[in-house]
Amino acid sequence: MSNKKVSHDPNKKMKRLMTLQIWFKDSDVIEHEYSFENKKEIGSGGYGTVYSAERDGEMFALKCFKNNDMNNEATKEFIKELKQLHALSSHPNINLFHGITRDPETNTFMLVLQFANRGNLRQYLKKKWQDGIFGISFNVVIQISKQITNGLGHLHKHNIIHCDLHSKNILINDDIFLIADFGLSRKIGETYSSSNSITKGMPAYLDPHCCCQPGKKPMKNRTSTA
């Protein structure tokens, strides 16, 4: 159990909000006026909670951080994910980033993302598993693999390693497979600051040499892709 205390100092909270606002002003990230309806929680991860919401008849995904006080670590992760999404989301196999918005009730910034209407790859595969057999053809497996590797190729072209690639972070919209959740992503060659950074990923998909040697550079996404 962590003994780390969360600061509720209103001055620190305001300072972090100002940090975000300055970054938004200096970038070309679009800030949307909050006009979303029918918000429902659809998932959560290490840092954030994801909601589905509707605006003008169109569905969106809204991702916000669990810690509304936005501590230093959460602020850095939020800005980092914004930068990664903004640079990468033009690819058809990357979850589309529409911009940011702010919840008027909590004053919390949220990512506005493409809504995936068929859930994630883990849910998809679970539905295909019946009586000990996957009801999925080899050709479909090849098509899924091609889409995921196309998305990964786009990441690597921009010198980005996902670092948390697993079946729950592969979303499905219609028949298109999308790589999502860039909160733990790194630039190629960037080391982890501590072993704690590594454990935020899903252990079954981690590169084994990173587990054995904390601080080791991740070697692209070969282990998680396999």
Describe the structure.
This protein has helices spanning 10-26, 72-88, 121-128, 138-157, 195-198, 208-212, 222-225; strands at 37-44, 48-55, 58-65, 97-102, 109-114, 129-130, 133-134, 160-161, 170-173, 176-179, 186-187. The model is unreliable at 193-199 (pLDDT under 50). It has 226 residues and is an alpha+beta fold. The chain has two domains: 10-114, Phosphorylase Kinase, domain 1, CATH 3.30.200; 121-225, Transferase(Phosphotransferase), domain 1 (Orthogonal Bundle), CATH 1.10.510. It contains seven helices and eleven strands. It comes from Gigaspora rosea.
Topology of this protein?
Layout: H1 10-26, E1 37-44, E2 48-55, E3 58-65, H2 72-88, E4 97-102, E5 109-114, H3 121-128, E6 129-130, E7 133-134, H4 138-157, E8 160-161, E9 170-173, E10 176-179, E11 186-187, H5 195-198, H6 208-212, H7 222-225
Antiparallel strand pairs: 1-2, 2-3, 3-5, 4-5, 6-7, 8-11, 9-10
GO biological process, one term: regulation of autophagy
Organism: Gigaspora rosea
GO cellular component, one term: cytoplasm
Task: Describe, in short, the structure shown.
This protein is of the alpha+beta class and 226 residues long. It has helices at 10-26, 72-88, 121-128, 138-157, 195-198, 208-212, 222-225, and strands spanning 37-44, 48-55, 58-65, 97-102, 109-114, 129-130, 133-134, 160-161, 170-173, 176-179, 186-187.
